[in-house]
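**Fold in C-alpha cells:**
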Amino acid sequence: MGYVTAVLFVLTGLEARHETPAPEPDVVTGARGAFPAALGSAAAPLVPSHVLRRTTADGIVVHGLSIQSTGAGVRAVNIRSGAEYWRYERGGYGEGNGDGDGDENRSYYTPTLQVSARTVVAGFVDGRLTAIDLRSGRILWHRNIWEGESRRRPNAQLTGGRVIFDTPAGIRALTERTGRTLWTATRPAECDETPVGTVYAFPDHLITASASCDVLGTERRTAGTGVTPSVTRSSALLLVIDDRTGKVLWRQQKGEQYDDLLRADTRTLAAVGPERRTPRPVRLLDVSREGAPVRTTFSIHLLARVTTADGIAVTTVDPHIYDTESPTLLSAYDTGTGRLRWKLRAPTGQKYGDPVVANGRVYVVRQPIFKYADAGHGTTADLLVLDARTGRSRQVLELTGLTVPTDVNAYASLDMDEVGAREAGADGAVAISWRGGSKELLLVTG
C-alpha cells in the first residue's frame, strides 16, 4: 500500500511539472496623452499644399493617427510626433512567430485591419476579431467568428457601423461598437462557403456583399484528418441584404468571377470584367431593393487599372505598350451613362500612379518613367488635383526628396493610398506610397 501511494505521489508530481503553462496576458496600453487633433481641414474637396510627414510605416491614416498592424496586434501612432499613442498585443499569439522580429511566418500571423472614424477591428488568422476604440485604445469586444473548422483566415469588412464576415452559418453582421450579432444572412444551399470580398452600404437600408460561392471536395466531411478541403467549383455571387433584418432581398450568381466590384455612386456598382477578355467590360449595375440590373456597359483596355467614386470611373493604362508598368493615359467615364468624359496623356518620359477619386476631384501622382540606372537615386514627382468631371487641373504640388526603389519595375510607381476627406472621420490628409516594395510614405495636407 505504501509502495502504491509513493508511485501515485511521483506520477502526480510529474504531471504537475509538465502541465501547460498559463497563456500570456494581452497587452493593452490604453491612450497615452491627449487625442491628437486632425491633420487639417476635412472640408471637401481637399486642397493639399505641403508634405506634413515622411514615414516608413505602412498604416491607415485617420484623425491624426496612423493605425498599423504589428506581428501580434495593432498600434496607433501620433503622426505629428511619431510617438506611439496606444498599443494592443495579443498574448501568446502565433506561438512566438508573429512578434514582428522578421520571422518568416510573421506575414501569416499579422492581423488584418478595418478602421472607421471611431473603431479599429483587427482580424487574426485563427478567427478572432478584436475591436478597439480609436480614441481611448481600450478593448470594446472580442469575438471568435468561426463556429467550426475553416480553411480561410477571417476577412471581415467594416461598413455603415457593421462588421460583416462569412461564417459556416452564413454571412453575419455585428454592431461595430458592441460586437452584438445583428443578423445572419443564409447562404445559397449549393454553396459550402461564401468568402466575402467587398461590402458596401447603400441608401434605403441596403448592404451589397460580393462573395464567392465555393463548392468543396468530399474531404471536407472527413473530420479530424487534417486534410485541407479543396474548392472543386466556384462562381461569383452578389447579394443585396436588408441591413435591418439580414433578409437576402435578391441575389445574382454567375459562373465567371469579376475582377473587381466597386461602388461608383450612391446607387451604382461597377463590375469590372476579367483581364482575359479584350476589350474588358465594365458593367454598371443599378442597385435597388428589386435587383441590380445592368444599366449600361463600357469597355476599357485589357490591362487598365480602375478606381471609382462620385459618379466617375478613372482608368490608367498605356494603350500602346502591353504592360502595366508605365501607364501614360488617364481616362474618365461617367458611371451614370458609361460615356467617356475626358482623357489626359502624360508628357513624354512620364507616367501616372494609381489615382483616387474623392469629393469631385481626381488625385494622382505624375512621375518619371524610371530606368534601371535610376534605382536608389533621388527623384521628384507631381501630385495633380484634377476636376473629376472635366479633367481640368485644379492644383499641382511638387513632391521632392524621393528615392527610387531598388526594384525598378511596376513597384516604382507612386500610388494614392487614400484621401482623408473621402471617408468619415478623415482629417484632410493625402497618403502616397510606392507600390508594393518600398514603404516610404508621404502624408500631404492643406
